[in-house]
């Protein structure tokens, strides 16, 4: 008899394989989850399984308290970060975490990614935040749960809205991204990686490159996401 | 019954798919158009449709006043920039716009790309111009139309001829390129991206790298484009 | 009649081909070996044979004194380095050597790769060591054997354990990596190359980027390799 | 009836296609030739024909005075440089010219590529020379012929032997490479491009990176090319 979570697992599987196809992960360096709000569970990649051998039936179903509801494998070691985000941010449907090259490099540099151009402004109006590394006692404690707290604290402190800013860097670690579903979380991971590379190159070419001016930030964001948006179908 | 614009749509579709094959776009980050001078219309990519799912019949036919002549989808949000160029530059047959990595990085750096070598001089004799970002009132107004004005103003101010210089960077945004047809606009986009990467690397290796000397600029441009050209068949 | 080393040769062949598939080698610029501890021999790539034409039966079986036990071709010119490591480090099952781009560039820069992030700490808790170039008399002597000595001397001097730190750079030359088998040696070569690129980019973005703090180094290494590890299946 | 140069054309065609497969050319930015010493002719790519559509029968046969011996198409615009090299360097069997990314960037920087590591020393014992741009009167004269003179002058001035140093950069232009046949010329073009990227990265990581010491240069070159060479089969 089939699982009631079959389509959720498939959505999660497809999103994970897309991470791999887009060159955002090697080996086991990443994971995507997809939530089922009606049943208060989410599907997530099993821990340490390479993308080359991953199958839809390997995907694990977990509840918001990190208990396995269905699946034979252990879920991603980052599961508690995913659950914390789902519990606190009710509008998101998918979360992705990777060690993508340029995103990680900015995270290791412990710097926000400045908004330099319209590619960035097409997606968000703020610099991409880099949360500082956690305090030692939080690292030694419930680490992955505390990573979720760290993300929310960073958003609170800076007055950011997770509905607009759908990505963050964790200092010394790497990117998390989210969105209305798992595919959108993967899309945002790719956008972040692209913008991270562009910002790196921009500063190599001109260390004094100016931030994008407010009128252009607003114009590009609004034409795609504003109430009079005219981008797309 | 078939459309009278069937072959125009196919030319436009092929050029858009070539952008993707050449690694110049991800997702929906670019668009190419192809003009039909006899009928005073052009074919352009629909807005927000990913290259993976784009079909020839999705291409939209638009007139020079941006009215849709044929097609069920909304044309690219950059349509008014394309139409402005077609209306004002009678010799061009295709226009391409992308967010290609190295071209965008120079645009974000707000710097012209200096002519450093023969790869550049094989295609044009000037630095590749980077137009400054527009004034705020132009951004808040008819933005995409004004982007066209910005391009022409930059060419007028610098005394450039669009028949020779077939590419430009818009400050903080990205590249536009054109040519006798859509395929040539895509070719010029790839040449610009290649030259942009070479110039970036050149300055990393030697920040004092000299501009190419006039005799070499002239020699390489003339052997390919001069009246005694001997390059090609 | 088949060779008693058939499966050993195949393990070695597959690992060599994986180096190529992962973009870690061009032409003949690398080699992997796999040991058979029971028979005190190892299988290694033949010298100067391109990956494009390599076949499992080309793999050469050599003993710890570098004598060919089976095979018609001459073994890799680096064979004596491999045998020295097998003889002295009883727990390793595979060794890989390449001229991968970013690893070689750090080796040519004669610098250790600093531990900047969790991607690094997921695999080892120390900076990746770069051994200095050998003294002239050792180079003029039994060069490849002395390369093995150089590796062990570097580990002794710095108090490193080859069971934890499974990779090294040889100054001005390139990377060696090892592991419980040939596939793991290749995996470590890819991890080293990835971490090398991340560290390079990190320093380009922020020349003052801080080293990863001890609590995070410990947390990430322990969750994957500690006695209470909870990463993987 | 078949051409007596059929196999020469095929050798030349295969080598040109290999340039493309190795990512060393885009569009028409490169050419390889192969010589037939017995008949005092060489086969070369036709001018301006893209690699995507190139066929073996398009290859042009030319004599050392640049006269077309067989073929319907115009030979490469760089033909006179190739013929000059064949006429003056009797041991070479193939010549390749490209606009490969990192090689061109060093050429535009007008700098020799320093010998930083064993990857370089495995192939030659000198820095890779960058010839200065030609005097204006030579550029305005018989340009491609004079490019050949420029290459030989650079070798003479520096006391280099074309049998050992099989590559050069032409300042502000790009690389030429040669070898015993066309395939070796392509191989050397790829080695040059790889070494160029490694040297660029090395200096980015450590601007004070030291040149490889003489004992290592000699050891690596001799083990592959010396009279007691033990690399390869």
UniProtKB/TrEMBL annotation, chains A, B, C, D:
<comment type="similarity">
    <text>Belongs to the aldolase class II family. AraD/FucA subfamily.</text>
</comment>
<feature type="domain" description="Class II aldolase/adducin N-terminal">
    <location>
        <begin position="10"/>
        <end position="200"/>
    </location>
</feature>
<dbReference type="GO" id="GO:0016832">
    <property type="term" value="F:aldehyde-lyase activity"/>
</dbReference>
<dbReference type="InterPro" id="IPR001303">
    <property type="entry name" value="Aldolase_II/adducin_N"/>
</dbReference>
<dbReference type="GO" id="GO:0019323">
    <property type="term" value="P:pentose catabolic process"/>
</dbReference>
<dbReference type="GO" id="GO:0008742">
    <property type="term" value="F:L-ribulose-phosphate 4-epimerase activity"/>
</dbReference>
<keyword id="KW-0119">Carbohydrate metabolism</keyword>
<keyword id="KW-0862">Zinc</keyword>
<protein>
    <recommendedName>
        <fullName>L-ribulose-5-phosphate 4-epimerase</fullName>
        <ecNumber>5.1.3.4</ecNumber>
    </recommendedName>
</protein>
<dbReference type="Pfam" id="PF00596">
    <property type="entry name" value="Aldolase_II"/>
</dbReference>
<dbReference type="InterPro" id="IPR050197">
    <property type="entry name" value="Aldolase_class_II_sugar_metab"/>
</dbReference>
<dbReference type="GO" id="GO:0046872">
    <property type="term" value="F:metal ion binding"/>
</dbReference>
<dbReference type="InterPro" id="IPR036409">
    <property type="entry name" value="Aldolase_II/adducin_N_sf"/>
</dbReference>
<keyword id="KW-0413">Isomerase</keyword>
<keyword id="KW-0479">Metal-binding</keyword>
<dbReference type="GO" id="GO:0005829">
    <property type="term" value="C:cytosol"/>
</dbReference>
